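An example makes the point: we let one protein speak, the chain in one-letter code, the fold tokenised, and here it is:
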Amino acid sequence: MSADRTIAWGEVEAAPGEFAAGMVKVAELSHRGPILMPVMIVNGARPGPCLWLNGAVHGDELNGPMAIRNLLPKLDPQKMAGAVIATPISNPLAFQARQKNTPQDGLDMDMQFPGDPNGTLSQRLAHQLFEQIRRLATHLVDFHTLGTHYDALPYTVFKRLPSASAEVCDQAERLARVFGGTAHCRVDLGGSLNELPGNVAGFLDVQCLKHGIPAFMTELGSGGHIQPDMVSFGERGIASILHELGIWPEAPDAAPQARPITITRRRFLYADHGGLVVDGAPSGSVVKRGELVCRIVDMFGTVQEIRAEQDMYIIASRKNPPVDTGDRVAFVGLEWQEDEEQHG
């Protein structure tokens, strides 16, 4: 940000009191055609925090980008104290390929932060993006969805990180609760983590926390399609955070929803046999110990019943029935408590 508070990235530039949107060149394809990342800047007339909204680091996650593109043009920068910067499609190559990972190198870009200016394409994109985030952002929301095979209600994920200050992690948790969700997942990276393979330290929100930027993930529904109710939920969540940070003067109307829960331990359930998943417990439900989570059937009968080994909260259920051995059939919470306070 310049001395006069003008915000610029490439050719996209917004002076105080202005809105700007455009494309920033971040790399080249083999025929020398540019790889462009869409950028939106709403620069308030008065100084204040800078909220960064990031979407589609996985190219099949569409609800967050739609919430961003719907809401930001409605903001009047003359009424704002601070700024909003958005990269709604932060992995344009995965977005173009309609898939999670970057097709050119097969990498999950959300495991490559802070990036490498001399690395593979995903690592270079992550580096360019994170350099701007580190330069400009005071807070960040990273928009995700579950995979295309799953159904889920909106929830957030905030992390406790030994290498980040407790104050920064506390701020991230507060913002996640203000954003809202049916559940909030507190993930302690200081303990053993067996939820996902890969480079957890390379997550965008983790790197933000390490660099003193409060950040959290929101999971808005399912990938591969646009869900209007999830898009609306995301718009309201952004507006709630803008009001919480003092960037926007007006609070959104309260949304009717059940009191959320805070989940402190999670795991995936996997198929032991191939077949089709049927009779799955719906997302947001509680399955008691011994009750059926789902069945796997083939053309001749039932090949596996997956029952709860303990009480489980269904974070996500499988909606695409065919599974092979080792495929995920559900994502569940094992330890949780009902929140005492309704945020957002």
